[in-house]
Amino acid sequence: MSVLDSKVPKGPLKTKWTDYKNHIDLVNPANKRNIDVIVVGTGLAGGSAAATLAELGYNVKTFCYQDSPRRAHSIAAQGGINAAKNYQGDGDSTYRLFYDTVKGGDYRSREANVYRLAEVSANIIDQCVAQGVPFARDYGGLLDNRSFGGVLVSRTFYAKGQTGQQLLLGAYSAMNRQIARGKITPFNRHEMLDVVKVDGKARGIIARDLVTGEIERHSAHAVVIASGGYGNVYFLSTNAMGSNATAAWKIHKKGAFFANPCYTQIHPTCIPRSGDYQSKLTLMSESLRNDGRIWVPKNMDDVMAIREGKKKPTDLSEDERDYYLERRYPAFGNLVPRDVASRAAKERCDAGYGVNATGEAVYLDFAAAIKRYGIEQAKIHNITNASADKLYELGAAIVKAKYGNLFQMYEKIVDQDPYKTPMMIYPAVHYTMGGVWVDYNLMTTIPGCYAIGEANFSDHGANRLGASALMQGLADGYFVLPYTIGDYLSHDIRTGKIPTDTPEFDAAEKEVTDRINFFINNKGEHSVDYYHKKLGKIMWDECGMSRNAEGLKKAIEEISALRKDFWKNVNVPGTTTEYNEQLAKAGRVADFLELGELFAKDALVREESAGGHFREEHQTEDGEAKRLKEFQFVSAWEYKGEPKDAVLHKEELVYENIEVKERSYK
Amino acid sequence: MSGFFKSSIGRKYAMALSAFFLMFFLLQHFAINILSVISPDAFNEASHFMGTFWAVQYVLQPVLIFGVIYHFVMGFILEAKNRSARVKTYAKNNGAANSSWMSRNMIYSGLAILAFLVLHFIDFWIPEINTKFIDGDMTGLLPNGEGFRYYEELAHKFENPLRVGAYVIAFIFLSLHLMHGFSSAFQSAGASSMRKEKLQLFAKVYSIAIPLGFIFIALFHHFNH
Amino acid sequence: MNLTLKIWRQTDANDKGKMVDYKVTEISEHMSFLEMMDVLNEQLINKGVEPIAFDHDCREGICGMCSMYINGEAHGPDRGVTTCQLHMRMFKDGDTITIEPFRAKAFPVIKDLVVDRSAFDRIQHAGGYISVNTSGNTQDANATLISKHAADEAMDAATCIGCGACVASCKNASAMLFVGAKVSQYALLPQGQVEAVDRVKNMVAQMDLEGFGNCTNTGACEVECPKGISLENIARMNREFLSANVKG
Fold first, then answer.
1. DSSP class of residue A35?
2. Final residue of a structural domain among C89, C110, C131
């Protein structure tokens, strides 16, 4: 028997959540007023949780490193949010969303959690519409849907290419209402630097005011970590510059197990990197694959001619192009899941067919869609004998209405017009499915410490489907945590205010202060970014889209050596009592340097291929991921000092309501 | 409605309303003045009516004076408030990149118009009031009693090229002020974008045609006498 | 390319601050403006000089964190972009670029180019929301039909990223485009009607309290807005405000 208890309630899958909710302990409204909850991170998960907890009556403190909760990186999610509404009448259902998510996650997620997610997905849309989120509508005034990768229905709700922004602003508005009522106290430009445990329970945090540098103590009856993923361990990713794993890593070091760190999503449609100076990568929404066709030239001569600028992609005829996704996966075509699409792009580029100077780019082409829409529009507007130019104009207008902001973003960065010439794209690190291990209640292995949204590991298995991150973040924050946390807090109604002048707080604060002082006083020779870039390169080279035992072992050694050097030679300018971005970053990179090693270790142990984790040793004859039955478990790592000493705990995954099959999109 | 006119938007409405009133007055003023070019008799008739009819003298005139004073005072108050909203100014500011000169310099075109008004009052309004209320001559006749005095006085005023020059310059500033002010007033009053395009055109025509007309009148009388 | 940068340096809110000249060399035209700033900062750190503090986060033009007044314009000379999306191809070799923080009394400088925009948050607290609890049994999302036109217009208003370029560009440091956009989003949707009167009054009152200037319709905000938020939103707010005051 593992030390891990997932606490999944008994009973049939379909009624588990309802039955469970009916039987958990509640806190009466008068007592909620005496209970404090800290929420770290104000993205979709943290923002929605904070607002809902405050509505219920708890006293909530929120923390975010940005200057406003509205800027959390959920805002950058473009394409949409899934929900099993079946508004399109195309056969969608709660079960189908559950099925698609488990299959999309390559059978590495927890059945009961995913079903619950699918169950509450419809409520999210209702809630957001009630909040005034302006989802796209059709001419009849009903909500519109689009399709995303890995599914055969249209269940994705969207607000142009800014769905994450609109949902986040919705959650932020719900927060604002509670801030106005005094139920939420926001601490913006604050960073959590440690969790404080009293009698084994999470009872507060140590935070740093990023403007004044002041170290603050905050106590609460429960601490919720909603600080997002750790994609920035790669240095280059689609994450925000400030996105970090510090909150999640700190609780890991204090006893929260860290699950499946090797499950990372490399998103197939990002703008390729252009040079060493690059600070981040920009995502082009997966929704583009609804209409865009991905290809590389069939012949090596054409590849060379394009790279040398002698030919343009538009010069190539249809039969000189290799629409490799449509060729390899006829059933799903360009809408295969992200891991599959990314690996396929890498396969073509590794074979030498990359279309830009670095050899790391494929085309995403809208010419066919523009033509198709043009003909459709000509019909609608009764235009007969339309010229090619007119058809193009009509079609381009539709494409613009759907993806205008994305096309503009592309043009600004690359300086090419994607209406006229195909976009160039390449995979980039985007999302981390791994994260803090949580049980069915979303509680970590530290009592009273919860992890929600991307920060936890729970719902996406080894690969996340498009438009599911927003769904999970809001499901956790609006509809799951507010219930499950009550069960825990019901035991705290007599606890009273948690004092902060205790030895536990003293010790935690000292640890934080010592580390900050060390950075400032070290006066080494290399900047923080120097180390971050080095770490990123190791991660990308050895723990990227494909991994092998040899490379992972090398990565572990290199990261460990780099970490030692960092603690000897890092140079952090300025002082501790001012706005000091380098100082904040030093702490984050120090944590990444530990997390990166655990990541590689996890990838080494997982001797199979599953979803975003592709081990070269484990592939089918035609290069697909080969999953192994004996790895049907969650790897939850317990901190024991150095990452190399981390202890593995396994949570076996049981599938009672879904048949574990070969994952095929052919 | 309490506090409405103390709020920023309330003051915008107030500025817009007083602007509408002044622009209407300007149109009316122009309509009468242009008569002086077409028919001195008609001009005299109209002037006498405006100068002696009780409703104009004792109701509209005070309202007009209040409107003018309100528009100026509120303009100054808002300008001061707006300046205080940015304590430290930019070392480099490229206002021309995003807005018209007129819109950024309403205070200066406004001050030029204020200076003109002082001159204009000295030229016409004070002598008029003097004649009517100090001397008590409400007849509107020339001293020799042969016909109305208004046209003669007007023609006499435009003999001096310096004064004509000042008037022409003032009208240019008026035009600049109106070019932004007219459409700005509609925007402040919440005119919707559908109508705005037509309004923009109307505003342009108005803000160029009226001052140009006044300039024409001034020059006409200068060169014809 | 090689550039001269004139950058505002200010150690904290109480410091008087001054413009300081820097030189950067070998800047690629494909770099984003902030990547150019990264290059400069790396140079400064290696020389033992404190790097220039500037706000930035997503670096893809959506979070609204980056600011900077570049050569006399918010987010620089390009249109429809934030500073993080501004590319160095907009400049020429040998150019001198002036970089200042967004300036307004309501946006005090924290350090160098970093300003405090919490006034925007406080305006939102005053009414930037619809009062609906998270119950899980709100009415079905399709129960109220919303015309595509209204939904699209609300969306256009809602795309505001709260960066403050409107305030920075306005000669009066007015926040009316920001507030107008939020008021408009809710005014255009049926869900927003119930609280419409209080919302616009409270948000405008808070806006005035924060010390923003008044709108004189120069239109600079609309031109400089990285998201193209229309002036129509200000007109709509004015209408809403008048009708709210008439209704009492």
1. -
2. C110
